[in-house]
Batch of 3 targets.
Target 1
Amino acid sequence: MKQYEKGQILADRYELIEAIGKGGMASVFKAFDIYTKTIVAVKILAPEIVLKPVGQERFEVEKEAFAKLGLNPNVVKLFDVIQSGDEWYIILECVEGGTLKDKYQNFGAMTLRELKYYFSKICDALSEAHKLKIIHRDIKPDNVLLTQSGEVKLGDFGISVMEDRSTETEKAIGTPKYMPPEIIAAQKATPKSDIYSLGIMLYEFSTGIAPFIHKEANGIALKHLKETPTLPKLINPSIPQSLENIILKMIEKEPLYRYESVDEVKRDLLKVKQTDSPKPYNYHKKVTLNMKEGQKTIKVGTTYDKLPVIAKSAFSFSFTLIFLFLILILVAVLVFI
């Protein structure tokens, strides 16, 4: 990718101040708009990406998504789009209060009040996106930006798709830590895919730990497919039962069992009270995912990790480790009797 430096002026208008983000598909710079005398964010797409049909489609979808959601207060605003040869730029609102990931790393698990505030705002952004047939596909704390006054802005629609016409709806792409089983299985992404990713975030911010952890990307992916999540209240007993129920319903393996919309998620989340004690949610422990023959590929930035061959398989959740642990305890007890 071409090197860009501080002080460089793009399109005779945007003076680069500093790099604020970089990925395999684009770099983001804080810049000064010489015309309006304001600070903006300039997203520069990598030439090797925009020269490919898939890169061009992603650019068009991201541009369209930001444009359609331009009036939503919880989405980063689009100011301009510039295409000059193999240099393509998206000029966006510069949000300088950090990300939700930064806040999580600094303060750990959130209070119920904080969860309601931040996640209801994300739901508002996704609600409008879904009504416009836009599926984000990369919901994660890094893509939720905060203004210095605490406003919430959803950003980075770089791998989003239009539900009714994209050629990329059945590709396994995203961030493994938050990736829904159906996307891992290269099935069609739907609004419920975003609900799953948001549910993984809600689990993480409620308990202080992600439900599925592994040192390798493919290991995390397999956990999303096959492993039952530990009940959030076992990790953080202070979580209201109603909040645990919401989380578990959001991260059901099969989309069929998840919430129908983010509006329903927001409705239930805002109703949660610390003293709530409804009946525990019955998480579905069997799931069937139809997978294509051959190896599946997950894209993690610029790296690729192969999943084992799984063709039209039914995955059932195993409690083998728990069983072995109980056996060891029993043996230990017998030894000391």
Note: The longest helix spans residues 112-131.
Target 2
Amino acid sequence: MAYLGVPGEEERFAHPAGGDVCTSVSFKPSLLGRPLAAATVYVDARVDLAHRRLLGATGTDDLDYALTEELLRLVAAAAGGLPLRPVSADRTLAAAARQAITEGASEAAGLCSLAALLKVSPYRLSRVFSRETGVSLTRYRNRVRVSQAMDQLAEGEASLADLAARLGFADQAHLTRTVREHVGHTPTVLRRLLAPGSRASRAARSRSDVLVPD
């Protein structure tokens, strides 16, 4: 998820032990068009991949304009469908569900077990989560697993079968289908795109289709 902040507004975030890494993007008020009212934005896997490739290109002297424009289009699309007046209790429930999924809680493996963990009915959890985030629990969970897959592919993971098993996919084919659905590329292609200093990575930086920042 990404977080939207309004100028002059104070916010607090709980960070994992040891801290974390984030990218901060500031907009001129004139670019926003209307005041921001939502606190979170669902970042899909295509935006995630674009962000990773932008960061990979920051070591060059020329950042790709087309890549930046593509990122802004994707972020705008993600932010456009958010509810403007979220209910506090619903927002808290959705945040707890996201946390359980992101942290890999064993109960997050299924809707019923996750609902039991959060002490709500599966129907309420599913309905609230979809309304607050704009995506289903199933898609969000898969989105988290795709991000984890990209992390490990960028680190050089060679075995897709082992990767699939570690992330809880039925098999390698299931991993490949899910990754392609979310990112538009197979894990094999992503391995080349995300490899630091690879020929594919260097070539990507010089093409107008190179990417920028679920």
Note: Residues 87-133 form one domain.
Target 3
Amino acid sequence: MLISEYLALRNQISVTTGNTQVQPGGRVNAAEGSGQEGTFARALQEKLAEKQGVEFSKHAMQRVEERSIDLSRDDTLDRLNRGVELAAGKGSSETLVLVGRNAFVVSVKNNKVITTLSDNELQGNVFTNIDSTVIV
């Protein structure tokens, strides 16, 4: 996804705050009574799912935004998917995928990114509860 697509999508989506419940058919009922449909995170998740196989958890999406990780740079998503496929081929269930200067902890069995770290957060960290590491 190009950053221009990301920004265009972000500007088109209204963000609903408060407690929301998703109804069948994708309708969102906000506890605050705003009546807004959809959220930025859900729309971004759907757009990412179109472009690649791996999904991002809500926590991972928050980390991507907080840490300004550019998923469109250097074919990051393609490389991430390739890393997950390699881990799945070896029978991994939880893996650390290093893509360029970013790290992604991925549930291979659920095909979902659990969390992300940028390059300046990698040093001095210990990654636990993983059974493999893939460098792509």
Note: The chain has two domains: 1-51, 53-136.
